[in-house]
Design goal:
The protein has 4 domains: about 1-45, no CATH class; about 55-225, Endonuclease Chain A (Endonuclease, Chain A); about 250-415, 3-Layer(aba) Sandwich (Rossmann fold); about 425-440 and about 465-660, 3-Layer(aba) Sandwich (Rossmann fold). It contains 27 helices and 23 strands. It has an 8-stranded mixed beta sheet, with helices on both faces. Strands 18-19-17-20-21-16-23-22 form an 8-stranded mixed beta sheet, sandwiched between helices.
């Protein structure tokens, strides 16, 4: 409209129209008012934001995914017409689709094989969704991106540039434009959109397993070229050694560690979430420092073996420069010695080195340093610089890790920050209610058993009966149905299951294997050799699952893990985060890790929202907010089924997050961190 036309516009007619709208009721009144608000004058015609036209962009907290979710939760039915779909985005929406199915809400999805973008796996996963009918458009160059929601008396439509992918709907680096509008059922825009969609829907063919088999052959032929197109460049193999350079986190940390040294510090602590590259960071710092000799200490030989390999990649040099000092190896003359604390702490072994033998000492998983073996080592050696690394410096014992490092934290990045920075593989968490038996007496046995475990009490009189129920065919079938529905990233399952009891782990592994999912149990009874062999089987795809108790909380690196299953009570948010972190390392053919948490009638369920978000505010409202809003953390998502939500609400109702015992623990953690009586600003 030109300026003159705008001046000649008859606002009197609009006022009459506005008056007529005021006589309408309910949705008709709100939607009509929204038209005037969005397309004429928002100041003159204020309206409810719910119905007003909106531009969705992924910028400034305006995540398109959030609106897609909101509209799904409120609709009576829905139709998506999208060209591109990723497995990761489908995984995010599966919990919502299942909730809708439980309420009888049906949906349709119209897609295509345009550019062979959609993988055969995506089509297999679509067939798992019980309330979704899927068809393949018979249109050349199908590139639609529309989301249509049927409401009571009106429709909401989102049309724009966003496909059903995590980058398009969630990533703020993607500058997407999608317009959301609402219209009454007899609105002209509804007729136009419906006519277009229905025409293409009638001409489309139904998605079937047979169709997917035929498509898979075509997709396999096109895949090499597709990888180049989708990555935006052609990958060329270059001869020679691969150069590893510090990432942004490592560059920042290296600068801060050096800054400590420049100010005369002889030690520093790095607090960094599992999977963020602490070992490479340490190797880069050793490269910068150029020590004559270095000592690397850890509590497991498996950590040493992988750390030695990482250091050699960064530092270079002959194999004999990198030696092990463990129960089986005493390579004392190496320039870089990698030692277990148990072996090194023996007096005869310590005496093989001079106190000033190493000018740089590094301790991995330094939160274990309160142990007597570490104390003997630290009392003996006198390095020029001492670096400690951990993801969890907070301790339940009286040892103060912060004090050991003179309260000098060189760098700190926690789990949630690392996820926001894209340093870790995103997780898709879904809390589902655990299996409930038809017999109330059986459920009561399970409840009493879990209650005893939560209080660290003996449950011998209940144990055998409870374990037989926990590993019963009924429960195992229920677990596998859920793990199959929610799935995993990539083409091969690499699963890790956490149980609460050794016998349960062995029984679950046996039952999984019987049901066609080869699994092996690992417990503290198994030697390091057995553990490494079983991990190798998981990595090679020879087994689908490792079922374990607490031995994989830390100190284990299995990047391929793409599904983590919790079949245990949550007694500690620290341990919960450690176990969740087993799947957060990035790996090829892995876009996310699926976290499936089976939530029973546990007293400590309130810890789940706290652990997932890292919120230590002792606020029940914050915890409830996590359950209600199911927030995203970067590209990571959180979801609960309705029964699981109620179980966590019940736990929150019974616990006092601000009781003196808990507040005292928070106070003590801050006091340890700052080394004095805390002030308000410290919190």
């Amino acid at each position: 409209m030109s300026t003159n036309q705008h001046q000649d516009f008859d606002y009197g007619q609009l006022s009459s129209l506005a008056s007529a709208i005021q006589k309408e009721t309910g949705v008709a009144r709100e939607v009509a008012g929204a038209v005037l608000n969005g397309y004429v004058n928002s100041d003159q015609f204020p309206t409810a934001a719910k119905y007003a036209p909106r531009l969705l962009t992924n910028q400034f907290g305006n995540q398109i995914y959030d609106q897609i979710k909101t509209e799904l939760e409120e609709c009576q039915s829905f139709t998506f017409a999208v060209a591109f779909i990723t497995d990761a985005m489908l995984s995010n929406l599966k919990p919502i689709f299942l909730r809708l199915a439980n309420h009888g809400v049906q949906g349709r999805l119209l897609t295509s094989t345009y550019l062979c973008f959609n993988s055969p796996k995506v089509f297999h996963e679509l067939l798992k969704i019980p309330n979704l009918e899927v068809r393949l458009a018979d249109v050349d160059g199908f590139h639609q991106k529309g989301y249509i929601y049927e409401k009571e008396g009106y429709q909401t439509i989102i049309i724009g540039s966003a496909n059903l992918t995590e980058k398009a709907l969630m990533k703020n680096q993607n500058y997407e434009w999608s317009l959301q509008i609402s219209s009454l059922d007899n609105g002209e825009i509804v007729h136009q959109v419906s006519e277009n969609v229905e025409t293409e829907w009638r001409a489309a063919q139904a998605l079937t397993e047979g169709w997917i088999e035929l498509y898979a052959s075509k997709y396999a032929e096109a895949k090499p070229a597709l990888q180049q197109i989708h990555s935006g460049h052609v990958i060329v193999d270059r001869p020679g050694k691969q150069t590893i350079k510090p990432n942004q986190m490592q560059r920042d940390a290296l600068g801060q560690i050096q800054n400590l040294r420049n100010h005369g510090a002889d030690r520093g602590l790095v607090v960094s979430a599992t999977g963020t590259g602490k070992t490479y960071l340490a190797a880069f710092d050793v490269q910068n420092y150029r020590p004559k000799r270095m000592l690397f200490i850890a509590h497991r030989e498996q950590i040493l073996n992988k750390s030695r390999q990482s250091f050699q990649r960064i530092l270079g040099g002959p194999d004999q420069d990198f030696g092990l000092f463990t129960g089986n190896h005493h390579e004392t003359d190496a320039k870089y010695v990698f030692a277990t604390n148990q072996t090194l702490a023996k007096e005869a072994n310590l005496k093989q080195f001079k106190p000033d033998q190493f000018d740089y000492i590094l301790i991995d998983e330094v939160h274990h340093v309160g142990a007597s073996t570490y104390q003997r080592i630290l009392d003996y050696f006198k390095p020029q610089f001492f670096l400690g690394m951990t993801a969890t410096p907070e301790r339940n014992d009286d040892f103060n890790v912060f004090e050991l490092f003179h309260y000098q934290i060189a760098y700190e990045i926690r789990l949630q920050d690392a996820l926001l920075e894209g340093m870790l593989c995103p997780f898709h968490y879904v809390g589902v209610h655990d299996f409930e038996f038809k017999n109330d007496a059986d459920n009561e046995v399970i409840n009493q058993y879990n209650a005893a475990l939560a209080k660290n009490k003996s449950a011998n009189d209940l144990e055998q009966r409870a374990l037989s129920l926990l590993s019963s065919q009924e429960r195992v079938k229920y677990i596998l149905q859920a793990t199959d529905y929610y799935g995993y990233s990539g083409d091969v399952l690499h699963g890790l299951v956490f149980c609460s009891n050794r016998q349960e782990a062995k029984e679950i592994a046996a039952k999984f294997t019987q049901q066609g999912h080869p699994a092996k149990a690992l417990t503290g009874e198994d030697s390091q050799t057995i553990r490494e062999a079983v991990v190798a089987e998981l990595e090679a795809g020879k087994i689908d699952y490792i079922v374990t108790v607490d031995i994989f909380n830390e100190g284990i690196d299995i990047p391929c893990v793409n599904q983590v299953v919790f079949l245990r009570n949550t007694n500690s948010s620290i341990i919960y985060t450690q176990q969740l972190g087993r799947g957060l390392r990035k790996a090829s053919n892995k876009d996310y890790v699926e976290i499936i948490d089976f939530i029973g009638n546990y007293q400590n369920n309130y810890l789940i929202p706290i652990a997932l978000t890292g919120d230590n505010s002792a606020s029940k409202d914050n915890a409830r907010g996590t359950i209600n809003t199911e927030p995203t953390i970067g590209l990571s998502t959180i979801a609960f089924d309705e029964v699981a939500k109620e179980k966590i609400y019940e736990s929150l109702r019974q616990v006092k997050l601000d009781e003196m015992r808990r507040l005292k623990g928070i106070y003590q953690n801050i006091k340890q961190r700052v080394g004095r009586i805390p002030r308000l600003e410290d919190f």
